[in-house]
């Protein structure tokens, strides 16, 4: 039987909770930092002043995040309130992002190398920590092509994500995993961290 294939990364897609409860679609509406484009499936973090900005995902340490964007709301140049997949960096105002901020939320995500090319990984990555690949946003779809970098999979808690599950439906012919399930790793989630953001 042929398995479906994943040709390109597609961002982080919320699917359920780590504690076994189903994901009910809950989000929190946060203001977006002025001048920042924000896309569906993108990881964001609180910054000084209480707004959120996209996170530059890398395999390095000390990266914090509050959640993943699932849509936006903004005022366009005609004064109309628009709900959309993404918000551009200019020409709009009052930009807010709908963010899955639950520290227990799990996300399905594609596995790539550091350059964002699909690169399946062995199942031994389960319960390892992994870094991310930032990707780029697409104004036509409103989505970002973020992913996780399978080459960073390691033990310890110094990376932003933890691999909590495997997606067997999209394994390749060698039995390697093209997609995995991840959650934010411990205190790297800003609502679990003891490190706060400064007020404006």
Describe this structure in words.
This protein is mainly beta and 200 residues long. It has one domain. It is built from no helices and twelve strands. The strands form two sheets. Strands 2, 3, 4, 5, 6 and 7 form a six-stranded antiparallel sheet that branches. Strands 8-10-9-11-12 form a five-stranded mixed beta barrel. It is globular. The relative contact order is 0.23.
What is the CA–CA distance across the termini? 57 Å
What structural category characterises the helix and strand content? mainly beta
Number of strands: 12
Q: What gyration radius follows from the Cα positions, in whole Å?
A: 17 Å
Mean pLDDT: 93
Major sheet summary line = 6 strands, antiparallel
Taken as a percent bin, the fraction of beta residues is 35-45%
Shape: globular
Helix content bin: under 10%
Q: Note poorly predicted spans.
A: none
Question: Number of helix segments?
Answer: 0
SSE order: EEEEEEEEEEEE
Question: What is the domain tally?
Answer: 1
């Amino acid at each position: 039987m042929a398995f479906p294939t994943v040709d390109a990364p597609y961002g982080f897609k919320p699917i359920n909770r780590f504690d076994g409860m189903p994901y009910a679609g809950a989000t929190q509406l946060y203001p977006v930092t002025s001048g920042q484009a924000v896309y569906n499936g993108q990881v964001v973090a609180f910054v000084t002043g209480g707004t959120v900005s996209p996170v530059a995902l890398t395999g390095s340490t000390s990266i914090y995040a509050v959640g993943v964007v699932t849509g936006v709301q903004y005022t366009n140049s005609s004064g109309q309130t628009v709900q959309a997949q993404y918000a551009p960096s200019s020409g709009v105002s009052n930009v807010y992002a709908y963010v899955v901020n639950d520290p227990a939320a799990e996300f399905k995500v594609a596995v790539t190398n550091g350059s964002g090319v699909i690169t399946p990984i062995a199942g031994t990555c389960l319960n390892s920590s992994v870094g991310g690949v930032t990707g780029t946003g697409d104004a036509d779809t409103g989505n970002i092509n973020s992913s996780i970098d399978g080459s960073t999979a390691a033990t310890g808690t110094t990376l932003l994500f933890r691999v909590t599950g495997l997606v067997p439906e999209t394994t390749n012919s060698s039995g390697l995993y093209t997609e995995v399930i991840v959650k934010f790793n411990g205190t790297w989630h800003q609502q679990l961290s003891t490190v706060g953001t400064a007020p404006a």
